[in-house]
């Protein structure tokens, strides 16, 4: 073998390795593009539909931008989840390649979205983003539809949706963090909200509580 043939063989080998590396790199970022696109679409649909339904049910004059449900803490949480995602895809790209986990998370996102929107549509004007501390004429105790199965389907749906987003991204740390933080938020909110619901509806609500679970794990 001549020197030229030897060098050409070496170049060919290195070129093949480079092509393989580029192909692997491209595949990783193709996965990332899919997962991040699903996240963005899920978030846009969730918040825009919340706002649109609020306007449709309560009227434009009675709805503010708070119905988009975008708070400072929410934005910070999503930024944290994105930082985790990019950190892991650079250092541990194999973590993002468990497609059965990612697809399971996507299914959770869809299920959570459906449950929450059914809750809003079923409750109608009785569904508000802010807890009512004074009884209003249109405020009725809703126990039909999805409310036959859980008392707080809106909270149940959001919990499934929020955790599902992180599972879809294969974010282990954010999955645990979102599950704990969102659960704790709703656990405390339910206690506060149901104090007023018992005041509004009396024994009817007590009977409802005995028959139907809250919809949030470990919250009676």
Automatic annotation (TrEMBL):
It is a multi-pass membrane protein. Keywords: Endoplasmic reticulum, Membrane, Methyltransferase, S-adenosyl-L-methionine, Transferase, Transmembrane, Transmembrane helix. GO terms for biological process: methylation. This is Protein-S-isoprenylcysteine O-methyltransferase. It catalyses: [protein]-C-terminal S-[(2E,6E)-farnesyl]-L-cysteine + S-adenosyl-L-methionine = [protein]-C-terminal S-[(2E,6E)-farnesyl]-L-cysteine methyl ester + S-adenosyl-L-homocysteine. The chain crosses the membrane at residues 39-57, 69-92, 158-186. It holds the Pfam family ICMT. The lineage of its organism: Eukaryota, Viridiplantae, Streptophyta, Embryophyta, Tracheophyta. It is an enzyme of class 2 (transferase). It is found in: Endoplasmic reticulum membrane; Membrane. InterPro entries: ICMT_MeTrfase, PPMT_MeTrfase. Its main location: endoplasmic reticulum. It comes from Rubroshorea leprosula. One of its GO terms (cellular component) is endoplasmic reticulum membrane. One of its GO terms (molecular function) is protein C-terminal S-isoprenylcysteine carboxyl O-methyltransferase activity. Belongs to the class VI-like SAM-binding methyltransferase superfamily. Isoprenylcysteine carboxyl methyltransferase family. Its EC number is 2.1.1.100.
């Amino acid at each position: 073998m001549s020197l030229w043939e030897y060098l050409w063989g070496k170049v060919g080998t290195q070129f093949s390795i480079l092509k393989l590396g580029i192909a692997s790199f491209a595949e990783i970022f193709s996965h990332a593009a899919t997962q991040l696109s699903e996240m963005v679409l899920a978030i846009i649909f969730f918040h825009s539909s919340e706002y649109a339904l609020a306007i449709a049910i309560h009227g434009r004059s009675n709805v503010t931008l708070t119905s988009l449900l975008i708070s400072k803490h929410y934005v910070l949480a999503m930024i944290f989840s994105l930082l985790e995602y990019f950190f892991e895809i650079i250092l541990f790209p194999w973590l993002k390649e468990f497609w059965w986990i990612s697809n399971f998370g996507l299914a959770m996102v869809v299920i959570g979205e459906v449950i929450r929107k059914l809750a809003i549509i079923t409750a109608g004007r009785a569904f508000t983003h802010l807890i009512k501390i004074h009884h209003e004429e249109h405020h009725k105790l809703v126990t039909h539809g999805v409310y036959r199965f859980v008392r707080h389907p809106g909270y149940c749906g959001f919990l499934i949706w929020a955790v599902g987003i992180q599972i879809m991204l294969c974010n282990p740390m954010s999955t645990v963090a979102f599950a704990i933080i969102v659960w704790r938020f709703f656990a405390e909110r339910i206690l506060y909200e149901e104090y007023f619901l018992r005041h509004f509806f009396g024994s009817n609500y007590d009977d409802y509580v005995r028959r139907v679970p809250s919809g949030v794990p470990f919250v009676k």
